[in-house]
Design goal:
6-stranded antiparallel β-sheet; 4-stranded parallel β-sheet; alpha/beta
């Protein structure tokens, strides 16, 4: 479907009013533009119209034209990167082979969507499919068993531990090659995601709450969200060794 931001605003008001009259418990998501740059314009149009803005619960966009590079221009807390996967029809299980299908590419995409564009949700397309596929899992045309890509483990590193209702908390790093995000779950646990984009290992020290129990998981070419250690935080600092081109997940709990 093709429509302008102005047409999207008018459609939202028509559809929203129709749903309310029918007493249907349906929330509106708008506008799923194919590229994030286009989504900015649709979001701005919705935000500028008070009637449409009241009707839209979630503002959204896709990232087929490139990673999300800035937040949508809205004060709505519900903003989603609502669809993306790499282009092409290739089955690739690699973590870091320089291709757009690599697992580390998905990790970079998730980091940008959450930390740079400040999204509250990230939706990968698609989970499983047949043949040469960009999905997370390849289902054979016949026979048993499935093939699993590193893309799945990149997504799992975030989705397994960052649970619905979590909030992102401040986190940063002095080294530009280290991308860091942190989230606090409703159960009080804190999840740190450390994406080392450098071609060399990094050693860092994390400032975290004293007494916390830290469980570490590693995803890279030879690890698939493998548990690599546990530690009790003393002195408010947790040392971390981050292999080159890797994603390290640290879960802090009491």
């Amino acid at each position: 479907m093709e429509f302008t931001p102005a047409q999207a605003v008018e459609m939202v008001k028509i559809l929203g009013a129709t749903l309310r009259r029918a007493h249907l418990p349906v929330s509106l998501v708008c506008c799923d533009a194919a590229n994030w740059a286009d989504a900015l314009g649709y979001s701005a149009a919705i935000e500028a119209d008070p009637a449409a803005d009241r009707l839209v619960r979630t503002q959204s966009g896709h990232t087929y034209g490139g990673f999300a590079t800035q937040p949508l221009p809205t004060d709505n807390p519900h903003t989603w990167m609502s669809e993306w996967n790499p282009n092409g029809n290739t089955w690739n299980e690699a973590w870091d082979d320089g291709s757009g299908w690599a697992g580390i590419t998905i990790a970079e995409s998730i980091h940008n969507a959450l930390a740079v564009a400040n999204n509250s949700a990230y939706v990968y397309w698609t989970g499983a499919s047949l043949g040469a596929t960009r999905a997370l899992i390849q289902v054979p045309d016949s026979g048993d068993g499935v093939a699993v890509s590193k893309r799945l483990w990149a997504l799992a590193a975030y989705s397994r531990f960052i649970r619905p209702g979590a909030v992102r908390v401040a986190a940063d790093a002095s080294d530009p090659a280290l991308k860091v995000t942190a989230f606090r779950n409703r159960d009080g646990s804190t999840v740190l995601e450390l994406l080392n984009e450098a071609t060399t290992p990094l050693r860092t020290s994390l400032g975290v709450a004293r007494g916390a129990r830290a469980t570490t998981y590693l995803t890279d070419e030879t690890h698939s969200l493998d548990r690599t250690g546990t530690a009790r935080v003393t002195g408010g600092h947790l040392p971390a060794n981050l292999p080159a081109r890797s994603l390290t997940t640290i879960v802090l709990s009491r």
